[in-house]
Amino acid sequence: MDNKHSIKEFEQTVKALGYDKEKFQAFIEIFDKVLGSVREPLVVLDSDLKVVKANHSFYQTFKVISKETEGVLIYDLGSRQWDIPKLRELLEDILPQNTTFNDFEVEHDFETIGRKIMHLNARRIYRESKQTQMILLAIEDVTEREYYKRHLEELVEKRTAEIRAAREEAEKGKQIAEAALLEIKKLKDQLEAERAYLQEEIKLEYNHENIIGQSDGINYVLYKVEQIARSNTIVLVLGETGTGKELIARAIHGLSLRKERALVKLNCATLPSNLIESELFGHEKGAFTGAHSRQLGRFEVADGATLFLDEIGELPLELQPKLLRVIEDGEFERLGSSHTVKVDMRIIAATNRNLEEEVRRGGFREDLWYRLNIFPITMPPLRDRLDDIPLLVDFYVKKISKRMGKSIEVIPTSVMNALQNYHWPGNVRELENVLERAVINSSGPKLHLVDELKTHHKDVSTAQETLEAVEREHIVRILDQTQWKVSGKNGAAEILGLNRSTLRARMRKLGILKP
To answer: For residue 377, what are the β-bridge partners?
Structure first.
């Protein structure tokens, strides 16, 4: 039978029956019938708090018998083991007319059963006149549940302390681990950046292993390359456009102690100033519009290697102090970051401009010029190394023919004379373009020259002109030859071996306008 249902049935029955001496026997029978089989210990008290009746579970749980219990004050039961302060408080709250229900838990040492945690619930049973006649006291042994709960709390506290100790121990090694991870990440980022850079580099075609020539000018350049290669000294490669300044930079790197790493390159003339800064120094995510991720700059990629700054004369004036700081201290900050990065790299710079003249004009910092001009190497123009033209022609014709699937075996004397008598303002780059057009238009084994190469008669005066004047004259002559067609097939940009945007930029800088 359900305990709650039985107690409720008993309460309703007692309310209807009342409680007086004449009907006491009937009450006993009802109590035994309704609550005798309930597993929960129950005891009924009169208004004087004396035991009227208890169920079998009460006697069994507390190891007492009915004749020692009935008619005895609840506080005097079992050598006063029920004299519990909280029980007195509970029952005294129940006795007033305005209280019908109360319960609480008590932990107590019982003489017969030892220390227990009991949940006590007291209810008043009354007539319709609301006069208190009896109190029903229900008792639940919750010792195991409470002990388990307390044990669980202790276990949780213990485990929490263990976790806290483990975290503290882990925190001690966290800094070492983080430092190691940062170092690994730095090396990984550098490797990834270098790999990405090399993937771009292999798309280009180089012949840096082959500096073609036996002239005194080239031999002197190669002597200076061998002289400086194994040091970390900054090298400044000078010379006109198309003389092969990058080949010299690659030769220096190839003979250096850093040759196992890539030669990292940046052309300062091909990017706007804001992109040059990002490419050189790198940037953090969100440093500017479009910076969707962190990127290493060329200085970090070249850490431990060689950085080749081509067209250094085109470097914007506002970036020159930052470059000077890297040269002097090996330190810089990425765009969007206050963290200082230290690098160890060798710088090789190249320019076709007269930097000394630029310093006088205020277009180049004097202190940067002095830092760069430690060991200059000047590439001679092709017109000053005419003896090398047959070797260069033989090399490029074989290279271009192989690429195009042709076989050019004969180079007529008239063609070679025309090539050697030409002034070559575009130098080796222009020579390669002329030979490529010649191979394309040669249908047999004999090289057929397409371009009309006029003999130049201003060698002496030109030598006294500035590089810019020579460049301007050459560009204007090629534009006249192409009827001022800048881009497209057989345009001036193609003949000069320049990107059309680069050519237009040079035209603006040199003040070249279409007539």
So the answer is: 237
The domain over range 383-510 is classified in CATH as 1.10.8.60: yes
Q: Where are the domains of the chain?
A: 3-141, 145-189, 216-378, 383-510
The pTM (predicted TM-score) of the whole model is: 0.52
Helices of type H across 405-454: 413-421, 427-440
What's the fold here for domain 3-141? Beta-Lactamase (3.30.450)
Tokens of 21: 């001496």
Question: In terms of pLDDT, which residue wins out, 264 or 5?
Answer: 264
> Residue 364 in contact with residue 313, Cβ under 8 Å?
yes
List of residues 6+ apart from 401 with CB closer than 8 A: 407, 408, 439
CB 469 within 8 A of CB 436: no
Per-residue pLDDT band for 102 (boundaries 50, 70, 90) equals: low
Task: Classify 11 as helix, strand or coil.
Answer: helix
b/e burial code for range 24-59 (CB count within 10 A of at least 16 → b): eeebeebbeebbeebebbbbbbeeebbbbbbbbbbb
For the segment(s) 216-378, the CATH number from 3.30.420.40, 2.60.40.10, 3.75.10.10, 3.40.50.300 is 3.40.50.300
pLDDT band at 465 (very low <50, low <70, confident <90, very high): low
Strand order in the sheet with 114-126: 51-54, 42-46, 132-141, 114-126, 101-110
